[in-house]
Design a protein that fits this description.
This protein has 386 residues and is an alpha+beta fold. It has 14 helices and 10 strands. Helix content is 54%, strand content 12%.
Length: 386
């Protein structure tokens, strides 16, 4: 594997440097305190121009801009000149800031130079991304040098939102309470609206569940250098579960079986255009001397309401019991540490250093301390408290 210094040397890198300097024609990496008057303009850089500070910084590094160091609430600062005007690009707690020295003149030429600088830096990002960063991505992923954004709160919020809406519908307080449908007359009060929200709730729960399972991986023996992380992420939910826990053990097996039944009946069926993964869910079969028989009656019993709505209040209650049981198992079973990490909001890391630290903390019975210390460290980084 190439070291960081390897990626900044050689003919290919020198070609990239030359290309970038062509893109930034009229710019110079030279910068000195004597050039900077101390006054001028401070511009909030629109995310549409430079969306990722790390990419903007890479432009500065490859270009050879002067590293001005960090200070409180400022992660990095780089100085350069544009059309002879001293400039500084800084990553602050509040976003990227572009500073133009007062030598630029009044507001009109400052606005013109600002547009030119940001346009050229945006073009420079494309150069370094294609030539410097993109070639390293697959190699670094294979090495496990990956952080995955923790989206647990967002996904869990979706699940809780649709669950609450389903409860309201089934209790007769939904948005469509004054417009009963045939499904409501057959399946009970709020059956139609309740089903719509139940389906969304099921989809949201499994999405959240899979997200937690990936977050549990760094706390297992999983090694991304030996097994493809992207393949595991792209695997089916039951395969993800098998990567983090032994599903032949009694309690994991029980949870898996209950979730599988819900997945087969609802998630898989309606995730494939209501035809089911096998294509039979919407079929009605013409049986000689009998008549037309829906295939689903053979799977879920002879329940007339299923002809009008796929789930009623009793089904919703059963699904909620399964999900509540699974939540309790996640919080207290073999995946408790990974689940706790997901709830903390901290991102998922897979690099060898983190996995070794997490393993040691769990082995020594100080996982909560490790979690708190990591959270405090991330807070300092986010606040740029240096």
């Amino acid at each position: 594997m190439n070291s960081p210094s390897d990626s900044r040397s050689g003919d290919t890198y020198e070609h990239t440097v030359g290309h970038l300097r062509q893109v930034l024609r009229g710019f110079s990496p030279g910068f000195g305190d004597l050039q900077w008057s101390g006054g001028g303009y401070k511009i909030n850089v629109p995310p549409a121009k430079l969306p990722m500070p790390v990419l903007a910084r890479e432009v500065m590094v490859v270009f050879g801009a002067a590293d001005l160091g960090r200070e409180d609430k400022v992660d990095w600062r780089y100085g350069f000149t544009a059309d002879g005007v001293p400039c500084m690009l800084a990553s602050t707690k509040w976003g990227l800031r572009l500073h133009l020295d007062s030598a630029v003149g009044d507001k009109a030429p400052a606005a013109l130079l600002t547009d030119r600088v940001l346009d050229r830096l945006a073009a420079g990002q494309r150069v370094v991304n294609k030539s410097v960063l993109a070639p390293q991505l697959d190699e670094q992923i294979r090495a496990g040098n990956v952080t995955i954004a923790n989206q647990y709160a967002l996904l869990r919020g979706s699940y809780e939102y649709f669950r609450e809406r389903a409860e309201q519908a089934y209790s007769g307080h939904g948005h469509l309470a004054d417009r009963p449908t045939m499904a409501d007359l057959i399946g009970g009060e709020g059956a139609q609206e309740g089903w719509w929200n139940t389906l969304a709730m099921v989809s949201s729960y499994f999405s959240t569940f899979e997200h937690v399972l990936i977050g549990c991986l760094p706390f297992t023996s999983f090694d991304p250098a030996a097994e493809s992380l992207t393949c595991v992420i792209g695997a089916k939910w039951n395969e993800k579960l098998g990567k983090v826990v032994d599903i032949t053990e009694p309690e994991p097996a029980r949870q898996f079986a209950a979730l599988r039944d819900i997945a087969e009946r609802f998630r898989n069926t309606y995730g494939h255009g209501a035809f089911g993964s096998g294509g039979r869910a919407a079929m009605s079969v013409h049986i000689p001397d009998v008549g037309v028989v829906p295939v689903t009656l053979g799977d879920f019993g002879v329940r007339p309401e299923l002809l009008f709505v796929p789930a009623v209040k009793d089904d919703f209650d059963g699904i909620c019991r399964v999900f509540d049981s699974c939540d309790k198992w996640l919080a207290n079973g073999p995946l408790a540490d990974g689940h706790r990490w997901a709830l903390s909001g901290l991102d998922y890391r897979f690099d060898p250093e983190f996995r070794a630290e997490a393993f040691a903390a769990r082995r020594e019975g100080r996982f909560e301390q490790f979690l708190d210390e990591t959270g405090a460290y991330v807070d300092r980084l986010m606040n740029m408290d240096f």
